[in-house]
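stage 2 :: seqdesign
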């Protein structure tokens, strides 16, 4: 599996480019910004983008999705519970001081247990409300890798004080779904360094049970 992680935009959202080495089919997850940089990596690996997955509708994760869709003709996937946040992208842009990206159109809604494929690679959609109502994680069982969006970070969890956030729900998502994954699962958070499920189970102050 080809996996490039490129931090994009002023908030350095971890955008992932995941490709099948045999078929060169690829997924791009969270193209928040810097579409030129993302396209350069796609060209470098000679990939064809089949789907654009957005873990949640915060501007730092979705801001570049329409530009990438225009460049690749790949559909954009997002859980429908975050569609309301797409109507607030102008306000979100003002919060972080970036240009509003214009209207974002979602091609398909993602729901719990959907499968997202590129060549021989398969990811399972895990619906993890809490950071936003429509937050999802993508789990690649064969590679034991989790793209966690802003649900889980190394040593922290997603903030829940923005519209649609709920501390009770994010804890329920984390304990009920995310921590059900094997300890050796590599976690690629929406921002910051990689970690593992085992490490977070052991030491994340929001998750350890006293
Ligand atoms: Zn977010």
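stage 2 :: out
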């Amino acid at each position: 599996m080809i996996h490039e992680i490129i931090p994009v935009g002023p908030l350095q959202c971890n955008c992932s480019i995941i490709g099948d080495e045999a078929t060169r089919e690829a997924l791009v997850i969270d193209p928040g910004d810097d579409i030129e940089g993302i396209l350069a990596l796609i060209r470098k690996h000679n990939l064809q983008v089949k789907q654009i997955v957005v873990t949640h509708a915060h501007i730092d994760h979705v801001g570049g999705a329409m530009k990438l869709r225009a460049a690749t003709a790949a559909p954009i996937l997002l859980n429908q519970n975050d569609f309301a946040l797409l109507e607030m992208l102008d306000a979100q842009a003002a919060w972080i001081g970036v240009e509003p990206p214009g209207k974002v159109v979602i091609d398909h809604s993602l729901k719990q247990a959907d499968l997202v494929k590129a060549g021989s690679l398969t990811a399972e959609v895990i619906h993890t409300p809490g950071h936003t109502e429509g937050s999802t994680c993508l789990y690649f069982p064969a590679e034991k890798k989790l793209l966690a969006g802003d649900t889980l970070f190394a040593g922290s969890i997603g903030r829940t004080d923005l519209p649609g956030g709920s501390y009770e729900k994010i804890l329920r998502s984390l304990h009920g779904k995310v921590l059900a994954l094997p300890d050796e699962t590599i976690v690629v958070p929406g921002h910051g360094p990689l970690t593992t499920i085992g490490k977070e189970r052991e030491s994340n102050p929001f998750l350890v049970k006293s």
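stage 3 :: structure notes
- The pocket of zinc ion is lined by residues 56, 58, 131, 150 (CB under 6 Å).
- DSSP finds seven helices and 14 strands in the chain.
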